[in-house]
Amino acid sequence: MLVVHVKKRQIVLPGEVLAEGGKFKSGEGTFREGEKVLAAVIGLAEIKENNIVVVVPLEGIYIPRPGDTVIGKIVNVKLSSWDVDILAPYLATLNLMNVPGKPVDPIKTDLRQIFDIGDLIVAKVLAFDRTQPPVLTMKEKDLRKLEGGRLVKMASTKIPRLIGRRGSMINMIKKETKCQIIIGQNGLVWVSGSSLESEELVVKAIRQIEREAHTSGLTDRIRELISQRT
Amino acid sequence: MDLSSKYSQGDLLRDGVRIDGRGVRELRPIKLEVGVLSRADGSAYIEQGNNKILVAVYGPRELHPKHLARPDTAILQCFYRMATFSVEERKNPAPSRRELELSKVIKGALAPAIFLRNFPRSTIDVYIQVLQADGGTRCASITAASLALADAGVPMRDLVTACAVGKVNGQLVLDPNDIEDKLGEADMPVAIMPRKRFITLLQMDGRMNKEEFIEAYKMAIEGCMEIYKLQRQALMERYMAVRKEFEEEGGGEDA
Amino acid sequence: MHDVLSEVEKRFIITLANKGQRADGRELREMRPINIETGLIKKAEGSAKVSLGETKVIAGIKAEIGAPFPDEPNRGVITCNAELIPLASPFFEAGPPQEDAIELARVVDRGIREAEMVDMEKLCIIPGEKVWILFVDLYVLDDNGNLFDASSYAAVSALLSTMIPKVEVKNGEVKLLDEKEPLPIRDLPVSLTFGKVGEHIFLDPMLDEERVIDCRLTIVTDKEGRITAVQKSEDGALSEKDINEAIEIAIEKGREIREKYFMPLLKSREGAE
After folding, report:
1. Cβ proximity of A218 and A205 under 8 Å
2. Domains A3-57 and A69-146 belong to one CATH topology
3. Is C213 among the domain residues?
4. Which candidate from B58, B129, B132 shows the least CB-CB separation from C42?
5. Across chain C, what does the average pLDDT equal?
6. Burial readout C63-84 (b: 16 or more C-beta within 10 A, e: otherwise)
7. Does ipTM surpass 0.90 in this model?
8. Which class does domain A150-229 fall in?
9. Which of A6, A89, B157, C52 is an S-S bond match for C150, by CB 3.0 to 4.6 Å?
10. What is the CATH number of domain A3-57?
11. Residue C258 domain-assigned?
12. Nearest CB to A212: which of B122, B242, B251?
């Protein structure tokens, strides 16, 4: 017997039964107990195609996934690598060999010439599993050190809302404010505009999205917020 | 202060009415708030009778010193501390043996609910600060800590809810306050994971025969189930308030 | 675990400061919103919880009768203790107070003591033998910058809300009566803390600003506008111009804060003269 206990996008709490029946699979934010799939975190419940039950979390620390673009802060310089804080439970590593440019001899070169403590970088998560810290790479297009602008921190769980379906939300904000915006899946957003006011507008939009992430009609309200000021 | 000089046994229970006016199966008024601190990853505040307790959760995060980290699981660290002004006689600021024991049993109450194995080599830290104490602080702390963990997005099998039962003039009473604790004949704090009623904290201090013991922990579990409803309400309130502002009936799709 | 602020964040605050602006839109001389709640801990003789922006500090006052210091036999005793509890920040560790917490407690104490906020002679019960001892215990609950001012306001408000039992001395025996009375208050010290970025000093540094500045300057003034305590904390250096400017602002703002927050608390006490 298959039973679904929740409506789409219903807010659920840890321990709540979402669906019953062997056909249902346990996806992100859920766990399985016998025939039942239950919520493990507070979030929005959804049954996806192939009967995968997920809970999109409303809160929670960022867990790195290979392929994620992240913004990180250099916190330590070693002989041939850097420690990077990406606001995850684990400090990430950036190896010299994953940094683009001419090959460098770590013995002869002080790595601080390339990245020093306090530098902000955009990087991609190359690898991460339970046995080792996240490994980053900057050897892809658009990955670089960030300078100028400002850094905004938001809950990593709400980043998808900031991006929007196929980038609809973020592209709209970029177009209307004419700001450069780089989004890290880990909840850090870098904003750089031609004026402080345009940057502030982006920050306002981010704060509103963070607060109202679990509601509908958000894209329209953000569009209205921005058009009122530009 | 010598409580027994201030109150007599007769004051504690008179015709089924307790010293604070409650019935024997009545909980104290409870107020719960989630997300009250800006820096913590998760936080919650509880008032239960005159108890006032603040809980913060940090993590999962890196564990220092590294040698304490476990390769296959996160560890849970609980710190139960009482403010000097939380009790009648000023308490020495340094943690007492009682606070250290309570830290450990509270950890034991919360750990079974958490998917610790999801975060090897890290720690989840639960800080409990009792601002005012009036009996049953370990239970109130657990109830609030569970909400703080949910607020932090820590994956759990269930919430954890706690409630104590005392014995006053031979009568079992639910959620004893400080006076009932100190002058009563027994005190039994209990914590459960409500969905399956699995017990994660059970202590008893005093003297009970077998029937009393069983009746007491059943009473405590019923008390927990009532408090569980309040926990759910507190968590939902956080999001429903914002949602109500915008949602029409039937919801709407959004990009 | 150390706290590293990124270059981008640092530059952002410095760029704004050079324009006389701040990241949260405040003026250089503007404090964040202050919220004071007193009497929330009934088991304490006095208590106050202060929010300064998102920074939150709670103070509790416990009063005991004990022996005075031998060199001050006719005066009561005030002792301040502060704890930077790990609840309040990812960078606070569990354990006994370290130098930051101790500095905080001592500066708060100094501000109250030197302003003679509480009339210590009136707290004497039997000269040389029994006096009131007031424990001011501060717990930082949420660190978003400027713990010094938040803690000082909490301590002052808590003392203003304190009620101690009236005492009767008969044949050398001290008897505590059921009736309570507020503390004898002589002054209302106000603490103001400054940071400096680039050319400008500014009031009430919030968290990100605190991570950029090299040092802080705390100035406590009394109701006559006299300076009763000063502390330059952390490393870094200030110019004479900075200090002169800070003194002016501290006296002026001190007056504002005293009138807006402390005078109402003073007036609303039960049984006060």
Report:
1. no
2. yes
3. yes
4. B132
5. 94
6. bebeebeeeeeebbbbebbbbb
7. yes
8. alpha beta
9. C52
10. 2.40.50.100
11. yes
12. B242
**DSSP state, residue C74:** T
Burial of B244 (0-12, 13-18, 19+ CB in 10 A): exposed
Residue B204's CB: how many other CB atoms inside 10 A?
A: 17
Return the CATH number of A69-146, one of 2.40.50.140, 3.40.50.2000, 2.60.40.1180, 3.30.1330.10.
2.40.50.140
Integer Cα distance of C126 and C255 in angstroms = 36
pLDDT interval class at C271 (50, 70, 90): low
Nearest CA in chain B to A10: B251
Whether residue B246 has pLDDT greater than 70: no
| Helical H segments across B48-185, by residue range | 97-110, 137-151, 178-183
Other Cβ atoms less than 10 A from the Cβ of C171: the count is: 4
Per-residue pLDDT reduced to its tens digit, A87-102: 999 999 999 999 998 8
Write down the domain spans for chain A: 3-57, 69-146, 150-229
Q: Which CATH architecture has domain B20-246?
A: 2-Layer Sandwich (3.30)
- Give the list of residues 6+ apart from residue B60 with CB closer than 8 angstroms, or none: A61, A89, B74, B119, B122, B123, B124, B154
Strand, helix or coil for residue C240: helix
- With CA atoms as reference, the chain A residue closest to C11 would be A148
Q: Are B136 and B51 contacting, i.e. CB atoms less than 8 angstroms apart? A: yes
* Residues of chain C with a CB closer than 8 angstroms to some CB in chain B: 1, 40-44, 47, 54, 56, 58, 60-62, 64, 81, 83, 85-90, 94, 96, 135, 137, 139, 141-144
Q: Is residue C128 part of a domain?
A: yes
Extract the tokens encoding B216: 């007491």
